[in-house]
DNA sequence: GTATCGCTCGATACACTGTATCGACAGAGT
DNA sequence: ACTCTGTCGATACAGTGTATCGAGCGATAC
């Protein structure tokens, strides 16, 4: 009797599943509303602050209500990630013919989005992101990269460059944001790093078995995370430029 | 893990905390035993299969018993990650004077470890890894990179190169393993990718708004993940080599 | 040899989590 | 006016991490 939800809904991604029709209830819902509430929670308390129950509570609705719009919590996270990707799509008008500038723009947009939504890098590189905005962002990366002299008309090389570029973004942002959060938890401020260095680390370095690491920690200027990110980006850009054959 | 409040800031990290003395009980315990059991669970069922209760059960011990050896589940995950780092430290004897070969070796070891422990990339780039083996692996990376002509004696440039190299590893492995797991869940085999491409993706591409992406999907040969990883690595190595000034 | 102390163990409890189930209810169709 | 059908959400289940605290035991003191 109960109309079974088509069991293959597990194989149909949420992006291909229509949202239930709007209904006039004391608290109307939509995927957009749900994702909006989830984003707010995540921005405030991190990903751990997002639970089906809390999102529902923020919308003044029973928890089970959400499952009409989303099959699973992971799908909600997918929607949240895609919402961030929407902030990353570069305005086409500003794409200069200079591919390095184009990639710098994309990388900068991605990093800014990650700083606005510190939980985003935790999702980056997790389950594949195939939402509409993620695909548009991917297309933008490919579009810029396809103008690199050595890559035009060489799809395989293009794919490799795009993968490497994206891998750098994922790894760099994930690492930076995780460190930022760890520092915040331990109450370290950016400038006091060496003074506040944990006694443990100092002890390990004093043992003298990590000479290169010790030199790095001792050595004077610690650049800002932003500068570090951009410096690494230049390395990747140089590597892409160097791809010949 | 739910009550995230008492983060206990400033307390000594687990690496600096001695383990409680061994005790003769029906089921003697040690961090090594605990981590071993946790690794087995994670290798079998993924990170989601690791819970304090399950680890304890595998050791035929009450759950709370573990909290004498570990303050928090996150600390257990730290220990697990460090155990994997132990597999990554390159045998010093095999480090050739060729820095590119050295970095290829390290990258290969890291990838092999990630394939052995598919959950490892999920931890990579999460909370900072400061365990003894992680530090040794970091020192190895720095040691190899310090032999790059342009980097010797330039700590700041060395740091940037090391960060970029590691960011690539984190991003590439995380992405590759996540895709591998998603494919496994959906029962896709590697060769049938295009045929089994989800109708959703095909439909999006057919709309024609992602020409570059469409070309990549259509274009013939999909290289193995390993080849893709190595190709991206070459890009990063080229970028490091190109760092002058 | 006995008494005491201190410490470890783990059962129980608490506050959560994601989600399956299913009775009750409301809106549409006849 | 009366079905019928589909949505809603209270309740329930099986799990999670971990705080608490009484019981019991090993080592020490007398």
Q: Quick summary of this structure?
A:
Chain A is mainly α and 245 residues long. Helix content of chain A is 56%, strand content 0%.
| Oligomeric nature of the chains | homodimer
Radius of gyration of chain A (CA) equals 22 Å
Any guess at the CATH architecture of the largest domain in chain A? Orthogonal Bundle
Count the E strands of chain A. Answer: 0
For the record, give the distance between the C-alpha atoms at the N and C termini of chain A, rounded to a whole number.
Answer: 65 Å
Helix/strand/pairing class of chain A, anyone? Answer: mainly alpha
| The CATH C-level class name of the largest domain in chain A | Mainly Alpha
Report the CATH topology name of the largest domain in chain A: Tetracycline Repressor, domain 2
Compressed to H and E, one letter per element, the order of chain A equals HHHHHHHHHH
Strand % of chain A is: under 5%
Helix content estimate of chain A: 55-70%
Q: Note poorly predicted spans of chain A.
A: 1-10
Helix count of chain A equals 10
Q: Mind describing the biggest β-sheet of chain A? A: none
What would you call the shape of chain A? flat
Round the mean pLDDT of chain A to the nearest integer and report it. Answer: 87
**Most residues in contact: chain pair:** A-B, 74 and 76 residues
Looking at CATH, the homologous superfamily of the largest domain in chain A is Tetracycline Repressor, domain 2
The total tally of domains of chain A equals 2
């Amino acid at each position: 009797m109960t109309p079974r939800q088509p069991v293959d809904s597990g194989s149909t991604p949420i992006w291909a599943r229509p949202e239930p029709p709007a209904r006039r209830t004391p608290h109307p819902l939509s995927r957009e509303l749900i994702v909006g509430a989830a984003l707010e929670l995540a921005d405030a308390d991190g990903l751990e602050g997002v639970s089906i129950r809390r999102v529902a509570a923020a919308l003044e609705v029973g928890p089970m209500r959400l499952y009409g719009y989303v099959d699973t919590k992971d799908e909600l996270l997918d929607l949240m990630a895609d919402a961030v990707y929407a902030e990353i799509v570069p305005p086409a008008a500003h794409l200069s013919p200079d591919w390095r500038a184009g990639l710098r723009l994309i990388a900068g947009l991605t990093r800014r989005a990650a700083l606005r939504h510190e939980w985003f890098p935790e999702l980056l590189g997790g389950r594949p992101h195939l939402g509409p905005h993620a695909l548009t962002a991917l297309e933008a990366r490919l579009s810029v990269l396809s103008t690199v002299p050595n890559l035009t008309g060489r799809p395989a090389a293009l794919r490799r460059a795009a993968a490497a570029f994206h891998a750098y973004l994922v790894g760099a942002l994930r690492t930076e944001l995780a460190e930022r959060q760890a520092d915040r938890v331990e109450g370290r401020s950016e400038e006091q790093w060496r003074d506040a260095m944990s006694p443990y680390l100092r002890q390990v370095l004093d043992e003298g078995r990590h000479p290169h690491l010790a030199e790095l920690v001792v050595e004077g200027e610690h650049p800002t995370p932003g500068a570090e990110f951009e410096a690494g980006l230049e390395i990747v850009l140089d590597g892409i430029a160097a791809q010949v054959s």
